[in-house]
Structure formats: C-alpha cells, structure tokens
Amino acid sequence: MYKILIVEDDETIARLLREHLEKWGYQARCAEDFKQVAKEFKEYAPHLVLMDIGLPFYNGFYWCTEIRKTSNVPILFLSSMSDNMNIVMAIQMGGDDFVTKPFDLNVLTVKIQALLRRTYAFQGSASVMEHKGVMLNLSDASVTFQSQKIELTKNDYKILQILMERAGTIVKREEIMQRLWESDEFIDDNTLTVNMTRLRKKLEELGVQDFIKTKKGIGYIIE
C-alpha cells in the first residue's frame, strides 16, 4: 500500500484529501507539526508528498528543499498561488508536478497515480525503489543514499529488493531463502546470515544505520 503525506495547513482540505485517498486504497497521513515537517516525513517515510506552498513558519518550497536533501520521493504541489513564478519555483525546488486550488479530486488522483507509476513501476533503466532516502536501482543492482552510490552483488540486491517490496512487514527467513536460491533443497541457515551481514555492512558504508532489523526467530524487516 502506497503511503502519502499531506502537508496542508487547512484542516478541512487536509481531511478531505486524506479521506478521498483512503477510499482509493492509499494510506494517507496529514502533517501535524508545521515546524517539523522534515521530521514527520522521515518518520512516516511516504511514497509521495502532497505539498501546499503557503504554510505556517516555513513555506512549501523550504520543506521541498529539505526533503530533497535525503529523498527523491515524488512531491506534488497543491496551491492557489498558481502564477507562473510559483509554478517555476515549485519545479526548480524539486517538485514533480503542480495542481492549482481549487482542484478536482479525480484529476488529482490521476496525477498521483501517474507519479507513483512513473516512480515505482518497472520502467527499464528508470526503475527505482525508495524507502527513507535509500534508493535501490533495479536496472543496475546499485543502492544510493545521499548522493553516495555502491554496487551490490546478486544476493545483496535480491535480499534488499525482497525487504523493500515488503517494507513495514516481517519477511520470514525461509521466504527469503526460497526466493534467493529458488530451490526447495536445504540451504544452510548460516548462508543467509552471512549474506545479510555483508549487505548491512555495505549499507553502513553509505551511512545507513539499522535499516534492516532482525526479528529473532522469525526473519527481517525494514520499518
């Protein structure tokens, strides 16, 4: 289920957006502390952000810039400030699209679907998975974090892909081994542990700490 963070200070609009998105099967959350939007973004780790421009304390351009320091997650601006200068600013600051208020919810939904599809669906060399700023490139088996990039082995890549596909859910060791070696034959349990240790070490080299957590006796999870 895709997660969407709504950064909108008009409570009526924010609630309307959340309820509409939930009807479409998305998990939606409204930002609560407009002094700590970047912190809420990091904690929630959404797949897409709906960003108003006129916000208390700091405007949407500022928060877009802050998010872009750690993540390439799609950001869709929503604003009644729809003159050309603001639209240009929104895109230059890292926004992916702009919708003018008042907007049609169905049109907005189509734009959201298109952004999610372009970002997360398989599209050859542009195919990328993202979680908490960690970018897994499915076309060249590399992982990127804060502009640093590292190549992965076949097993490292498969393990990270499996866990990122199921982010927020515990994946059993047996399931990972089955998908990793595509065999019903017995695989030494320590082999997976060795592979997992190597992957964690590579992520730590990128500055990503505790990205993969162990659930003792069960499996692993990316929270």
Automatic annotation (TrEMBL):
GO terms for molecular function: phosphorelay response regulator activity; transcription cis-regulatory region binding. GO terms for cellular component: cytosol; protein-DNA complex. Pfam families: Response_reg (PF00072), Trans_reg_C (PF00486). The keyword Phosphoprotein applies. The modification 4-aspartylphosphate is found at residue 52. GO terms for biological process: regulation of DNA-templated transcription. Residues 126-223 form the OmpR/PhoB-type domain. Residues 126-223 bind DNA. PROSITE patterns: OMPR_PHOB, RESPONSE_REGULATORY. This is Stage 0 sporulation protein A homolog. It comes from Faecalimonas umbilicata.
